[in-house]
Design brief:
Layout lengths: L5 H20 L5 H27 L1 E4 L2 E4 L8 H42 L12 H8 L6
Antiparallel strand pairs: 1-2
Length: 144
Amino acid sequence: MMNRHPAESKQDRYALRVAARLTEGSQDLPYEISERLRAARMQALARRKLTQARAASELALSGGGATLTLGDEGLNLWSRLGALLPLIALAAGLVAISLVQDDDRAREMAEVDAALLTDDLPPAAYTDPGFLQFVKVANPASQP
């Protein structure tokens, strides 16, 4: 047996009270009106059974576990946008992080280039095999 939601049981109790009250009031009605009311009740019961059958069919078994599907009613424009919003925010965040990192890398490379170009040592000296000897002579504090 399926557990019912507390709100459903309250609705059911209210519906039973309303039905009882209508039944009491229908005793004094002419036959024609009471037959129309009976037909309307039968239609309402048929619709309720159809709604319950549809809700039961939405409970699908998958992989030994039960999952409740919302059907097509939950896929309106706003719910789709709400589902895509975190994905869009994630993509925007990743793009922003990439841009910031690229800017930092370019800034660091520019600082190294500026230091090389403004240094007393010409850039060609760094490729010279005697560069280590030059550094030792130019900076006597680094010698042991």
